[in-house]
Amino acid sequence: MNHVIRAVATAALLLITFLVAACASAPRVVRFGPDSARGLLVVTMPKTAYVHSADFRRVDLGQSRFMDGVTTLDAADWSGDAINSEGELYLAVKEVEPGDYVLQGLFTSRGSAQFGGCASEGGPVYSVQPGKITVVRADSFWRIFLAQGFVPDVDDQAVLDLFEATRSTGGHDVRGEVSIVDPSARIQWPPPMSWTRDCVRAETFTRLD
Q: Please, what is the Cα angle at 74 between 136 and 188, to 5 degrees?
């Protein structure tokens, strides 16, 4: 009987060890260069115990229309789209098709608890160019608009320094021109009638500037 108990205990310990190792696994390796036909979107995220997410959607500014598909960048402790463990902020990274992207909503979760909101009253639009590295300071929206005072106020140079320290470490090979961009436009669209991550249900929007 004792050997059965020991076998079960050993199997449970191996399972726990496997799960802990999986949870502590390093972030994926990112490779990108200036000859890429796509652009690299880098989004600064708060560094907390929560999972932070930024939802983007491509837009046609000329036709004032939303395009299909949502691009989500997630950042948590050594998981999601984050490529760094050092520094005061996470750098969430994803290759995307060139074009204009509106930050349509910010959300955070931990277990079943989640909150956030849509930017339908004035969503910022950012331009992503092929072969270029575009940094969006989403952390400032978390700090100001969602009143998350625990998000540190990090200046742009510190963000660029963090990116430079990260782009060629941990197996990453990220080459190309990098810049922190301001919104090229702000747009407005009908807000959802209730709390949801489905921030855009309209086909068109109104430009605010």
A: 55
Closest to 166 (Cα-Cα) out of 42, 47, 63: 42
Mean pLDDT per 10-residue section of the chain, whose length is 209 residues = 35 32 55 95 90 96 95 84 91 96 92 84 96 95 70 92 92 92 97 85 94
Q: What is the 3-state secondary structure (H, E, C) of the chain?
A: CHHHHHHHHHHHHHHHHHHHHHHCCCCCCCEECCCCCCEEEEEEEECCCCEEEEEEEEEECCCCEEEEEEEEEEEECCEECECCCCCCEEEEEEEECCEEEEEEEEEEEECCEEEEEECCCCEEEEEECCCCEEEECHHHHHHHCCCCCCCCCCCHHHHHHHHHHHCCCCCCEECCCEEECCCCEEEECCCCCCCCCCCCCCCECEECC
pLDDT of 64-102, one tens digit each? 999 989 999 999 875 689 999 889 999 999 999 999 999
